[in-house]
Amino acid sequence: MAFKMRQSKFRHVFGTPLKKDQCYDNIRISKSSIDSLFCAVNPKSVAIVTEAAGGGAFLVLPLGRTGRVERDHPLVSGHKGAVLDIKWCPHNDDVIASCSEDCMIKVWQIPEEGILTTITDDDAVAELEGHTKRVFRIEWHPSALNILLSAGADNKMFLWNVGSGEAMWEIETPDIIFSMAFNYDGTRFATTCKDKMLRIFNTRDGDLLKENKCHDGSKPSQVAYLKDEKIFTTGFSRMSERQYALWDMNDLSTPMTIEMIDNSNGVIFPFYDQDTGMIFLCGKGDSLIRYYEVTDEAPYVHYLSLYQSKEAQRGMGSMPKRGLNVNNCEIARFYKLLNNGLCEVIPMTVPRKSDLFQDDLYPDTASDTPSLTCEEFMAGGKNSDPILISLRAGYVPSKKEKMSTIKKSNVLDTKKKEVTKGGPRHSAPAPQEASNGAPEVKEVNAHPHRASAPAASHTPAATKETHTHASHAPEPVKPAPVQTYAEPAPAPAHVGPTLPPDFDAEKLIKDVVALKAVIKKQDKKIGMLEEKLQTLEASTENRNSTIDDGNDSAEKVEENA
Fold first, then answer.
1. CB burial class (10 A; 0-12, 13-18, 19+) of residue 382?
2. So which residues are the signal peptide here (predicted)?
3. DSSP bridge pairs for 126
4. Comparing C-alpha atoms, which of 135, 120, 138, 30 is closest to residue 76?
């Protein structure tokens, strides 16, 4: 009987690492022992968790700034403990979230021109405080704006509205969460836990939908939610063999397939491509990347090939589909962190003879435009898949409005930003919204492990101003009570000198920032030269004193003689 090989257009996918000058070198990569990837990539920048004295920090580099990274390169340094996980926002390439051992989750907005000076704690646009122990997992919602899921060592998960900085619900879990993954439209998410259980939750209210035992081993397991409501997990058997399994969301009693990989002890992280149905498996401490294809034919998960190198990987980042080079038939790109401080870039390509756009390799993929706001998603009754775009003409980033800080809120609160920009300056808030610009949060206690979310502890100052100046219509003169403050006089229409029509404030600000960076760098050089001069003077004095002591001792010897 002749053996018939299964046909697949991804069978000959191969990886070719770029040259060292096209990678990122001399990076102090984090030496934390936690099972994390330490790297996050988007079409604009690459972020890498680094070692930092006295706290946690990570490095953000534009994709084009390759080569050697200077030791004094500016960092995002705002955590008091080591940074454990970082994730770029899928709807804004300038926004990144980080979590740390200091129990805090912080959201940062990277300047359009890149980081010129170190970003500190005061520069965070949102601080999400609710966990009582270290936070080591965060995930952004795939289709709704400003929704972030977090898990910590306090056995709790929070769903955050990043725009208002509030927790929409809180879940208590039986044990520590190892990994989390949203489904395609974000209405559900799956978790793997230290108690060896695979659980599926409802995103809107946090209710537990299904659960079942996942892998028998006690080492960390990972999960990926596939597009067709299947769940892919990696873990360990009872004999500590690494394995993967495929589950049907509607029936978790038995896996659709489960296969052993090898006997290594590094945790395997799955990277799932929703467009091609491929899964890349990258093991911590491994020197290779395996890739598989998931289909509807048994055994459902088909081995394709592997990429192998000499150096072991400490971390890994994966580029979203919209950041790939479609002209070279690139279907994936990995950023591999090595122990020697190198971030190696590995494009994965499919060989094709034609230079034309390959429609079968690049179906429409998820864009950076959200399909729902946080309020629309949490209100229920409306689900929406991610908005798709075609890569035939290349990826063009959507224009993001320049954000401005709102009192008692942050720059990601788009609903309040629209009111500030388009509506009257002193208009009263809509009756369906709370005073802080975010919808009221209703407590749901349907799940036995649920706990109420922390309530807001402040009222925006903008609300007080709104009620104070809500009307400018003239009123009849009445005997007014004694006021404890004086009403401020309206500011004149034009204050100060008149600026020329071609005045560019943004350019002036950029020039000032760049000049400060240059001055700071020169100050460091001056300090280093002064230290060298002091060291040289001290060594000269020591040498002179040694010569004088030698002469004195010689004279004493002659006298004694």
1. exposed
2. none
3. 107
4. 120
Residues linked to residue 151 through DSSP beta bridges, in sequence order: 137, 157
AA letter at 236: F
Rounded to the nearest 5 percent, the helix, strand and coil shares of the chain are 15, 30, 50
Cα–Cα–Cα angle for 556, 558, 561, rounded to 5 degrees: 110
- The yes or no reply on domain 14-349 and CATH 3.50.50.60 is no
What does pTM read for this prediction? 0.73
Q: Where are the domains of the chain?
A: 14-349
Q: What are phi and psi of 176, to 5 degrees?
A: -70, 135
Reported as a pLDDT band with limits 50, 70 and 90, residue 520 is: confident
Residue with tokens 């029509």: 501
Which tokens sit at 426? Answer: 């002193």
> Is there a contact between 62 and 86 (Cβ–Cβ < 8 Å)?
no
Which stretches within 423-504 are classed as H helix?
461-468
- Spatial contact of 219 and 242, defined as CB atoms under 8 Å apart: no
**CA-CA-CA-CA torsion for 272, 155, 255, 316, nearest 10 degrees?**
20
Tell me how far apart the 2 most distant CA atoms of the chain are, in Å.
116
Strand order in the sheet with 188-193: 177-182, 188-193, 197-202, 208-213
Q: State how far Cα 329 lies from the chain centre.
A: 27
Compute and round to an integer the Cα radius of gyration of the chain.
Answer: 29
Nearest in space to 14 (alpha carbons), one of 352, 434, 501: 352
pLDDT per residue as tens digits for the range 345-391: 999 999 988 888 999 999 999 999 999 999 999 998 788 899 999 99
Given a contact cutoff of 8 angstroms between Cβ atoms, the answer to whether 173 and 156 are in contact is yes
Q: How many residues does the chain have?
A: 561
What whole-number distance in Å separates Cα of residue 37 and Cα of residue 222? 12
Q: To 5 degrees, how large is the angle CA 403–CA 98–CA 198?
A: 120
Could you tell me if 88 and 47 are in contact, meaning their C-beta atoms sit under 8 angstroms apart? yes
Secondary structure (3-state) at 109? strand
Task: Give CA–CA dist 439/432, Å, rounded.
Answer: 7
Answer whether 428's CB lies under 8 Å from 144's CB: no
CA dihedral 511, 512, 515, 519 (to 10 degrees): -170
Decide: 150 and 106 in contact? Cβ < 8 Å: no
Reading the block at residue 167, the tokens are 């927790």
In the block, which residue shows the tokens 């003689």?
561
Residues 193, 233 contacting (CB under 8 angstroms): no
The residue whose two tokens read 């001290």 is 538
Q: Please provide the DSSP assignment of 527-547 as one string.
A: HHHHHHHHHHHHHHHHHHHHH
pLDDT in tens, 453-477: 444 444 334 333 434 343 444 444 4
